[in-house]
Each structure stands twice: as structure tokens, then as C-alpha cells.
Amino acid sequence: MPLRVYNSLSRKKEEFVPLHGKRVSLFVCGLTPQDQTHMGHAKTYVAFDVVARYLRHKGYRVFYLQNVTDIEDRIIARMKSTGRAWNDIVAQYFAEYLDVMDRLHCTAVDVYAFATDYIDEIVEQIQGLIGKGHAYVAEDKSVYFDTTTFSGWGKLSGQKIEELRPGARVEIEERKRHPADFVLWRAQKPGEPAWDSPWGKGRPGWHIEDTAITIRHFGPQYDLHGGATELLFPHHEAEIAQAESYTGVAPFVKYWMHGGMVMVSGEEMHKSLGNFWPVTAALQRYEPEVIRFFLINVQYRGPIDFTPDLLDEAKRSYGRLSETVRTVDAERRRAPEKGKADSELRAGTKRALADFDAAMSDDFNTREAIAVLFEYVRAVNKAIETGAGRAELDSAAAAFRTVGGILGLFQAPALATDRFDGVMDLVVRLREDARLSKDFATADRIRDGLAALGIVLEDTRDGVRWKQK
């Protein structure tokens, strides 16, 4: 089944055909490390982690690049308010971000590119834009992009230059020739960090870093650009204008993907509204995989409402899925070679994998993919009750590993190596011997000791089975 992606540029789903065969260049707008990583960040980066995982599962060679905006107005404001060095602030919050991403199993990024490492490329692009008449130097030696020189302005967002007025989602500055113009290079103000340029000391504007980084790594055109919906205008519009004016190659990006926003009780999440949720706070209340499950249990383009009640519901739902995964793992170690329900389970596994792939091939629809998982779980549990053989249970376990690897779920470290299996089988037999000898104190001590280690013994009609919590 061909993979189809909703392209914000064309406003429709398109078949995904990379520019260079099976090689895929993916760029996602990254963090400005000046405050705690919040749930809005998590939604975006978990979503694109799944995108990269699924593309790799389908055989694509993905190079996933994410920028880090390590110099920006908010970083400077925090520097001034705290008296700390700007790079110390960046180091603190970027380290927290990496820790949070690791806990949420976001492992797909190949390179984190810091804006200040690309000053030479930024200056080179600005010089090129000035030379081609697309940018101008203002009186204070800042440099602005002249949006009236780019005929394609608005093709991503639908915004028209003539409709823009001062204050209408554009920054008001007297130095601009037109309200839609945006800064490429910001002249240094007293006490601010700065770098050398032909126009004097200053720092890069927000938009130019992304084109400098991607053109350096991917060239003038690449496959996929991801980010949150709120970046579509003016940030991504500005990227297109800069890059296509500089290189003359269009489209700059073949597929634009935008993720839905995080809401809190129906309102957009903002610090000013007092509904700001840092991921670290959420992780104090919920397991990382519960949060990840919650975030992908919606198609990436859709918004998500973040409330404790909904997270509690996600915890219960994910618990049902993970419990079945553990049950399959426990059952297949002690199941007979063949069982009554083998043909039904075999067909169910084949159907589930096909339906899962169909859902993911339809614009990475994780919501539908998870619905397939729940249907499969019901089929698996029914097969276990009826009696399933080891081979089909092994296939079911492999299916869960496959979909879990794509979604980033069921990733808890597995203890069930062959050697560990053998040790556990021995412990279970010793406990059974103690029970048969009416040494219930020893039997209970074994059960309680294993429970303390996160291993549960279950007495079933077919004997004792063990599994991890």
C-alpha cells in the first residue's frame, strides 16, 4: 500500500515519493532552550519520532535533522533577568530536553544542529539575498528580507502581503519597508551576545537559521519539513521565501507536515493562562509510555486536550494493551507446540499487521493504528483462552514487537532471556515443591520476594505462570 502524506503546501494528501529513491531528508523545527520542555513540545517530537520510525520500518534511509535555536530574544531576556550567561541557560534546558525525550523514547533524531554553529552559512545566505535584491540593510545595520520581492509569499499559509497590517501577526518595527518584512540579522544592542558580519556585530534572526542549516545538510531542496501548526505562519512562510529567493530552486520542501496543538481544558496551553504543563511534572504522575500513548492516540494533525482525567483514561487503556503483551510473553514460554486456536490467531495476526500498516500509510494515522491494536488484543486474549500453541504465540509476540517498535511502546527492558527463563522456571518448580510439601511459609516467601522484584506468579487452571508487572 502506498504511503500518503497530507501536504500543507498543496492542502491535500499526496503519495510520498522522495526526491532521491529510498533516501529521505527530514527536518523538524526544534527547541529554543530557555524554559522547561512542555507538553506541546512533547506532542510534536513524539509525533515525528513515530514518522521517522515508520519510514525506517518501510525501508527508507532517513536522515532526521532537528535545529536548536540557541540564541533568541527569550534567551536574552532570561539572561538579563537572571544574570546568567546565555550559553549556560541553553545548556541547562537543552540537557533537560534530551532527558525528557529519552524518557519518552524519542530516539530517532540523527543530528541536533545549534544555530550559532552555522553563523558562516547564515551570513553567506544573507549576503546572497542582499546581492539578489531580496534583502536590505536598515539604518541600525539590521538586515531585513523584502517580502514584496518574492512572488510566492503566502503559498503555504494563504496570507497575502497586501492583507497584512502592522500588528497582525507580524512584528511592528519602524525600520521595515513593509509590515510583512522580517529580520535576517539583528544589530547588536548593549550587553547582548553578538557575532561579526559585513554589516557589523549582531545575531541571526529566527527564520534564517533553519534555511542555513538545511541547505548545508540537504542542499537546496529536501523531502519533509515538520513542525507545529503555529509555526506555519510566519516562520515556515519565511523559510520558503528565503530559501527559494536564495537558491532559485522550488519547491524548497516537497512535503510540509504540521502537527495539531495541545489544548488544556479546551484552551491553548500558554504560561500566561496558568495552564502550562512541563513534561517533568507529567512524568511525576504518569509513566513515560502512558504519556507517549496519550500523545499518539490522536492523528498527528489533530489537536489534543491535555487534562489529568484524559491521562488517567489513557493509563487504563494502555494498561490493557501492555497487560496482553505481558500475558503473551508469559504464555508462550509454557504453551504446547500446537493449540486449538492456532488458525484463528494466525489469521488475526496477519490481519492486524496489514490493518496497522494501512492505518500508518494513511498519513501516519496513529489513532487508527492503535484502534487496530485494541482489536488485535481482543483476538489474542480469546485465542489464549481457547488454547494457542507456542509458534503462534511467538508470532503474536513478534507482532507486538514490530508495532511497538514503530509506535515507541512496549519498550520496557525485557528480562525474558533464555537464561532468565530457565532460572524462573526453576524458581516456580521449587515453589510448587514447597506447596506440595505443605511448606507454605517458603512458598509464600518465594511469591512475595518475586513480587518485590516486579514478577507476578499467577495460579491458573493449567498451572502456574509468571510475568513481569
Helix and strand pattern: EEEHEHHEHEEEEHEHEEEHHEHHHHHHEE
- Helicity range: 40-55%
Across the major sheet, the strand order is 5-4-3-10-11
Give me the CATH fold name of the largest domain. Answer: Rossmann fold
Instruction: Give the C-level CATH assignment of the largest domain.
Output: Alpha Beta
Number of helices: 14
Structural class label: alpha/beta
Strand content: 15-25%
For the CA atoms, what is the radius of gyration? 27 Å
Distance between the termini: 37 Å
Low-confidence stretches: 164-170
Please tally the β strands and state the result: 16
Question: What's the arrangement of secondary structure elements?
Answer:
Layout: E1 4-7, E2 12-15, E3 23-28, H1 39-57, E4 61-68, H2 73-82, H3 86-103, E5 111-114, H4 119-131, E6 135-137, E7 143-145, E8 182-187, E9 202-204, H5 206-218, E10 222-228, H6 232-247, E11 253-259, E12 262-264, E13 267-268, H7 279-285, H8 288-296, E14 304-305, H9 308-332, H10 342-361, H11 366-386, H12 390-407, H13 418-436, H14 440-452, E15 455-460, E16 463-468
What does this structure look like?
This protein is an alpha/beta fold. It folds into three domains: 4-259, Rossmann fold (3-Layer(aba) Sandwich); 319-407, Four Helix Bundle (Hemerythrin (Met), subunit A) (Up-down Bundle); 418-468, no CATH class. It is 47% helix and 16% strand. It contains 14 helices and 16 strands. It has helices at residues 39-57, 73-82, 86-103, 119-131, 206-218, 232-247, 279-285, 288-296, 308-332, 342-361, 366-386, 390-407, 418-436, 440-452, and strands spanning 4-7, 12-15, 23-28, 61-68, 111-114, 135-137, 143-145, 182-187, 202-204, 222-228, 253-259, 262-264, 267-268, 304-305, 455-460, 463-468. It has a five-stranded parallel beta sheet with strand order 5-4-3-10-11, with helices on both faces. Helix 9 runs antiparallel to helix 12, helix 10 packs antiparallel against helix 11 (366-386) and helix 10 (342-361) packs parallel to helix 12. The radius of gyration is 27 Å and the shape is elongated.
